[in-house]
């Protein structure tokens, strides 16, 4: 990327309006690569690329690295809605730093408030559209806890296709594996409303707990506790695309 004035660079990363970023620099709150900067019009090479961080800088005592575009994963906990204007529960966006909201990140798809697991975010419109599109048939893997025991008939029905209300044709799981007496791992390639719960209900059982463990070829980072997030690095973006 071409050189950027430091006020523009900070603005692009969600640290406020151009005027606010200019004031931060002039007030002496900004260091670049460990060197204080008080000139808001000083030029810096931001560097970086998709999933690769660039220039290191500090706002006050907060270290940061330039990211031309934001790609994030979050371990969504129970009790949060995937909406900027939630109705009954707090917004999942409250779990992200305010800089992310200012730079306009959006969730890629949604998880119900009582569903946990992998949730992706970005401010790249093309990336969001690509991974949100149902036509792409991205596999998503869910760990499902059921009210009643798993039976061979249940597994067979989910793989063969179940008829859900308001759907023109039966809908089948791409894969379905029993993992315990009341648990299974379900892989779906559609993104229909409440699909897992509706499919399980159509197969005469009920979902007690639901966790999304993988999207495409990308698994939820086991080091992330519920409510924690991290950047997606270049290897993560490659892994996301690496599935069959």
TrEMBL record:
Q: Where is the signal peptide?
A: none
Alphabetized UniProt keyword annotations: Isomerase, RNA-binding
Query: Where in this chain does the record put each Pseudouridine synthase RsuA/RluA-like domain?
Result: 71-200
Q: Which Pfam families match?
A: PseudoU_synth_2 (PF00849), S4 (PF01479)
What PANTHER family does the record tag this protein with?
Answer: PSEUDOURIDINE SYNTHASE (PTHR47683:SF4), PSEUDOURIDINE SYNTHASE FAMILY PROTEIN-RELATED (PTHR47683)
Entry-linked NCBIfam families: pseudouridine synthase
Q: Which protein is depicted?
A: Pseudouridine synthase
Q: Which organism is it from?
A: Parazoarcus communis
